[in-house]
Amino acid sequence: MKTAQFVFRQFVKKYWTSTTRTFASPAGRRLLTGTAGGGSFLLSASFFSASPTGGYEVPKHEEVRNLDLIIKETDALYNNYLIDNAYAILRKHGSGTCSELLWRLARVVCEKAKLSKDKKEKEQLFMEAFAIAEKALKHEKPEGCFGAHKWYAIILDYVGEIEGTKSRIKKSYEVRDHLERALEINDSDATTWHILGVWHFTFADMPYYTRLAAKAIFGTPPSSTYADALKNFERAEFLQPNFYSTNTFYLAETYDRLGNKELALEYYKRAFLMPVVSADDAQIHQKAHDKLKKLGLTVADLIN
């Protein structure tokens, strides 16, 4: 007989692990022009919004000279996946108190952790990124720092993964709170709405028997509804239409769970027909194809 821990671990592996990796990494950008190994980068599309702040006006920090220039340069390097180059600039500001630079440093250190092949180094880098994100929050201005909350939430989930399933699920409350705070500061960032949508869908979609197992392990596991998930996915799509095939697919999944089969079919079709420019897109393309096949549709039906 499967233990409660095993059942819940399988659920987390199926949903949480597969979804939370997509929002934090620009790695898919390397596939846009087939230059994963290096060379020039000409990005015609991206999962991320054109602006890392989603149109949010960065608060001024008078203690840092040329702040706007540093932000512009390091964001461009990050968006082109030149992580080491961005790190070389931002690490100089690690001892400072400018939250806008600190969360960007945390972001690139987080990316360096994901690129590391050494498990010990990977974990050390994630913990370093988390400490920097904590510092960014500590020094945020009264008006708040959108990026600090967003990346604290993202990196916190990695820390939970390092510490184990029980820690990760407990930290999910805090992950949600910081995503919501990020959106209070800047509600125009499509990717943050998508991440929060995934959070709500994950726990709304938890099977009853798994919920019982989780309750036995965690006492009061997080819970949500498909309506909450839909609100977030729709908001992301409104802000940046067709920005991410995964968001389109999640819209289909959520409509399906809510019993709106017509809209679910429409969004499964859209997800299938969206350009495949990254590894995430390829995975979603296949998932949408499998869903449509079960519904009796063929590729010819979709193309014609």
UniProtKB/TrEMBL annotation:
Main subcellular location of this protein, as a coarse class: cytoplasm
An annotated Gene Ontology molecular function: microtubule binding
Pfam families registered for this protein in UniProt: RMD1-3
Gene Ontology CC: mitochondrion; mitotic spindle pole; spindle microtubule
Keywords assigned: Cytoplasm, Cytoskeleton, Repeat, TPR repeat
Subcellular location: Cytoplasm, Cytoskeleton
Family annotation (InterPro entries): RMD1-3_a_helical_rpt, TPR-like_helical_dom_sf
Assembly mode: Interacts with microtubules.
Protein name stated in the entry: Regulator of microtubule dynamics protein 1
